[in-house]
């Protein structure tokens, strides 16, 4: 499958049309951004690592009954996937308090939450991705019906129920993550975007070491090494 016109360039990926109107190609970039684009850098190999990690995780989720946009990995930096209408809601799933949850609510960093928290952010860089409740999402027309919001929450919890024990077995705590969803050509809500250390937080179970984009956000260094370790643990049986 060949790349055709560039459809869209985001912070971490470029999206290309193909000869098939239902399929597009994502090119995973080495660029890194944080704090709504205010901090920028680039790390050689990061795009390929995220492509490979996302490929493995989409396959795992598909095997466990989650519908995703994934079709196949084409080469190191390219993934073929279904074309969808992206729902402009970032679905955030949290098992352990950190990041904006500790900043916003004063919950101590590292607190194990009494139950898995699912939150919605408005995917809107100009507004800085603000928190959304269900009524906001409906008023903004981000989805049409309440049951679509319920489905996003349900699917996000299912993804967590698959990924959390999977990573724990590999010595990583899945602290929190961000999912995106879209509607395919039949109107089904499916999981889209990527699942990688760019949008998940992984803490080593033994050492507590951060193995995700917080290494860049917090200036810790060693980002590509950490992402490679995440991939190696995924590939180890
Ligand atoms: P927080 O709200 O604490 O900053 O992020 C919660 C989780 O969602 C983290 O795993 C973080 O990586 C992910 N996340 C939240 N917003 C975004 C975003 O706009 N882009 C990316 N790549 N990840 C996000």
TrEMBL record:
Presence of the UniProt keyword Thylakoid in the record: no
Family: Belongs to the SAICAR synthetase family.
Lineage: Bacteria, Pseudomonadati, Campylobacterota, Epsilonproteobacteria, Campylobacterales
Catalytic activity: 5-amino-1-(5-phospho-D-ribosyl)imidazole-4-carboxylate + L-aspartate + ATP = (2S)-2-[5-amino-1-(5-phospho-beta-D-ribosyl)imidazole-4-carboxamido]succinate + ADP + phosphate + 2 H(+)
Top EC group: ligase
Pfam families reported for this sequence: SAICAR_synt
Biological source species: Sulfurimonas hongkongensis
Protein's UniProt name: Phosphoribosylaminoimidazole-succinocarboxamide synthase
Transmembrane regions listed in the UniProt entry: none
Biochemical pathway: Purine metabolism; IMP biosynthesis via de novo pathway; 5-amino-1-(5-phospho-D-ribosyl)imidazole-4-carboxamide from 5-amino-1-(5-phospho-D-ribosyl)imidazole-4-carboxylate: step 1/2
EC number: 6.3.2.6
All residue ranges annotated as the SAICAR synthetase/ADE2 N-terminal domain in the record: 6-233
GO BP term, pick one: cobalamin biosynthetic process
Gene: purC
GO molecular function annotation: ATP binding; phosphoribosylaminoimidazolesuccinocarboxamide synthase activity
Keywords from the named record: ATP-binding, Ligase, Nucleotide-binding, Purine biosynthesis
Gene3D superfamilies hit by this protein: ATP-grasp fold, B domain, Phosphorylase Kinase, domain 1
């Amino acid at each position: 499958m060949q790349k055709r016109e560039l459809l869209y360039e985001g912070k971490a990926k470029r999206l290309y049309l193909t000869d098939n109107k239902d399929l597009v190609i994502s090119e995973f970039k080495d660029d890194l951004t944080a704090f709504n684009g205010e901090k920028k850098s680039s790390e050689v190999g990061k795009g390929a690592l995220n492509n490979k990690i996302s490929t493995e995780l989409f396959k795992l989720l598909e095997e466990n009954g989650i519908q995703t946009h994934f079709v196949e990995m084409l080469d190191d930096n390219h993934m073929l996937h279904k074309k969808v209408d992206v729902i402009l809601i970032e679905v955030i799933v949290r098992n352990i308090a950190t990041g904006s949850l500790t900043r916003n609510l004063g919950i101590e960093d590292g607190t194990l939450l009494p139950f898995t928290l699912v939150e919605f952010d408005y995917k809107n860089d100009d507004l800085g991705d603000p928190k959304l409740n269900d009524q906001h999402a409906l008023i903004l027309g981000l989805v049409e019906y309440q049951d679509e919001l319920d489905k996003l929450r349900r699917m996000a919890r299912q993804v967590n129920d698959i990924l959390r024990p999977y990573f724990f077995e590999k010595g990583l705590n899945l602290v929190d993550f961000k999912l995106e969803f879209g509607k395919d050509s039949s109107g089904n809500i499916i999981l889209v975007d990527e699942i990688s250390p760019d949008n998940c937080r992984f803490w080593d179970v033994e050492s507590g070491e951060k193995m995700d984009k917080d290494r860049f956000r917090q200036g810790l260094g060693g980002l590509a090494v950490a992402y490679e370790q995440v991939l190696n643990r995924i590939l180890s049986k």
